[in-house]
Amino acid sequence: MKMSSTSRRLLLFSNSSMAGEEYLQFASSLINQFKDGWGMSKALFIPYALRTHEDYTEKVKKAFHPFGIEIEGIHKAEDPVAAVRSAKAIFVGGGNTFQLLKGLYDHKLIDPIRKSVLQEGVPYVGWSAGSNVATASICTTNDMPIVHPPSFHALALVPFNINPHFVDADPNSTHMGETREQRIEQYHEIEGMPPVLALREGSFLEVHDDSAFLRGRSGAKLFRTGKPVEAFEPEANLSFLLESS
Amino acid sequence: MKMSSTSRRLLLFSNSSMAGEEYLQFASSLINQFKDGWGMSKALFIPYALRTHEDYTEKVKKAFHPFGIEIEGIHKAEDPVAAVRSAKAIFVGGGNTFQLLKGLYDHKLIDPIRKSVLQEGVPYVGWSAGSNVATASICTTNDMPIVHPPSFHALALVPFNINPHFVDADPNSTHMGETREQRIEQYHEIEGMPPVLALREGSFLEVHDDSAFLRGRSGAKLFRTGKPVEAFEPEANLSFLLESS
Ligand SMILES: [Ca+2]
Ligand SMILES: [Ca+2]
Questions:
Q1: B 203-242 residues with CB < 8 A to A
Q2: Using H for helix, E for strand and C for coil, what is the string for chain B?
Q3: Computed over its alpha carbons, how large is the radius of gyration of chain A?
Q4: How do residues A1-40 score in pLDDT, each as one tens digit?
Q5: Do B145 and A165 touch (CB under 8 A)?
Q6: C-alpha B112 to ligand 1 mean position (Å)
Q7: Taking the C-alpha atoms of A28, A31, A35 and A37 in order, what is their torsion angle to the nearest 10 degrees?
Q8: In this predicted complex, what is the ipTM?
Q9: A41 alpha carbon to ligand 1 midpoint, in Å?
Q10: Chain B residues with CB inside 8 Å of A143's CB?
Q11: CB nearest to A144's CB, from B95, B140, B175
Q12: Ligand nearest to the CA of A100
C-alpha cells in the first residue's frame, strides 16, 4: 500500500558519454531538456568518484557550459553539508563507486542529500557511480573495491538497485569469469535483496515523484528474486519499482 | 632487505575450468602434479564463496576423486578453527570474493589460516576468489560487493594483489565502462598500494618459500605504481614480488 507520494526528481544515467564523443556529450544534452522545468541553471557537483576533484569538476563545468548550467564543485566548499543544504540541484559523477560512497560517508552527506532530494524536491542527477549511490545500495556496482566504505547502503532515493553499463552476455565468449547476469543472480541468492534495474549504455531512468520512466536509446533488463528476467524498451513505465516492498 | 625465508607452498589459479570442460578439470590435473611432493592426499575445502556449501563441496570432491585427493568441507566441521589447525592442505574455491572473505572473518579464520600456511607450511590452493583472498587484499577482485566484509584486507600470504580472470582490453570495443586495466590503474592512484599481478585465464602462480613462478598457458601482466606495465610469459620467475617493500 502506498502511504503518501514522495517529492522526487531524479535522472539516473547508465553512462555519461558514448564512444567517440566528448566527455558527457551524450548525457549533458539530455539533462539540459530538464533544465527549465526542474530549475537546474546551477548545480552542486560531487566529484568524489575520482581522486582529481578539481580536474574532474573542470571537465564537467565545460560540458554543461554550452547549456548555461553553472557547475560548482563541492570540494571547494568549506562546509560540504551546508553546500548540499543550499544546492538548487545535485549532480553526482561516475568513476569508482566505492570511492564515491566512502566520500559521502566521510563528509557526512548521506542524510543531508536524502533530505534535500526527498523532502525539499532538489533535483538529483547521477551517471554511472552517481546512479549506483542514488539507489538502495552499491551492491551491484561493476567497480573494483579500491577503498572500504563503512557500509554498502547508499542514498536510497529509490528502493531498488541499478547496474549501470549493463552488457548482455556474449554467447560466443570462452571467458570463464561470471557474466553480468550471473553476478546479479548471485546477489539475488541472498534473501530479501531488492530488484536490480540493469541499464544498458545509452539508457537512463527519469523519476518524478512516484513515476519512473525508462528513457534513452537502449533499454534495460529487470532482475527480481523469484521472477524471470524482464526486458524493457525505451519509454517503458517503471513506476511500479517505486512502491517499496 | 630480506630478513628470513618464509615457509610457504601456494598454488594460486586465475580460474578453475576452461570453456567446454568439466568443472575444475583444468586446475585439478595441475594441482595433482603437486600432490605427492607437497603431501596433499587430503584437503580441507572452504566453500564460502558460494552459498550452497554442500553442493559446492560435492562438485569439488568429484573433481579431485580421480586423483585420489580426498576433500572435506569446512562447513561440516563443528569447530572451523580446529579444522584449519588440523588440515594437511587448504583448498579455497571461487565464487564471490566478498562472500568468501566475509565468511573467513565471520568464522575467525584469518589468523589460523595464516599461521598454518606461513608457520606450519600447510599447502594452500586457491582459484579465482580463492586466489584473491590469499593476497594482501581483495581490492582487485572482479566480483560484485554482494555482502559487506569488515575489511578488504585478506590473508596476505603474499605481499601483493592478484586480479584473476584478467582480460586485455578489446581495441574495437565501444563499451564505455572502464577496462580491467583502467580499474587497476584507478587502484594504483591511491598511495602505497601493492603491485597487482593480473593472471589471464589458464595461468597460475606457484609459490614455494621465497620463490614464485608463473605457470600455465597464458601469461600475466604486472601493474606497479610509477612503473610501466610489464608482460610475463609462462615459467617467468616472479620471486621478486615476494620481497616485501
Ligand atoms: Ca565506474
Ligand atoms: Ca567470481
A1: none
A2: CCCCCCCCEEEEECCCCCCCCCCCHHHHHHHHCCHHHHCCCEEEEECCCCCCHHHHHHHHHHHHHHHCCEEEEHHHCCCHHHHHHHCCCEEECCCCHHHHHHHHHHCCCHHHHHHHHHHCCCCEEEECHHHHCCCCECCCCCCCCCCCCCCCECCCCCCCEEEEEECCCCCCCCCCCCCHHHHHHHHHCCCCCCCEEEEECCEEEEEECCEEEEEECCCEEEECCCCCCEEECCCCECHHHHCCC
A3: 17
A4: 444 567 899 999 999 999 889 999 999 999 999 999 999 9
A5: no
A6: 35
A7: 160
A8: 0.94
A9: 27
A10: 178, 183
A11: B140
A12: 1
Strand partners, A44: A72, A90
The C-alpha cell at B190 is: 591511491
B118-162 pLDDT, tens digit per residue, is 999 999 999 999 999 999 999 999 999 999 999 999 999 999 999
- Please check whether residue A100 is in contact with residue A62, taking contact to mean a CB–CB distance below 8 angstroms: no
Which residues on adjacent β-strands are paired with residue A100? none
What are the pLDDT digits (tens) for A133-173?
999 999 999 999 999 999 999 999 999 999 999 999 998 89
Nearest CA of chain B to the CA of A145: how many Å?
5
CA gap B193, A215 in Å, rounded: 40
Cα-Cα-Cα-Cα dihedral of B36, B42, B44, B50, to 10°?
90
Residue A51 contacts B where some CB pair is shorter than 8 Å: yes
- The mean pLDDT value of chain B amounts to 95
Domains annotated on chain B, with CATH: 9-242 (3.40.50.880)
CA-to-CA dists, residue B206 to A101, A125, B11, B81, angstroms: 37, 48, 5, 26
In 3D, which of B166, B155, B161 has the Cα closest to residue B117? B155
Choose among A146, A175, A186: nearest Cβ to B201: A175
- The 10s digit of each residue's pLDDT in B47-103 is 999 999 999 999 999 999 999 999 999 999 999 999 999 999 999 999 999 999 999
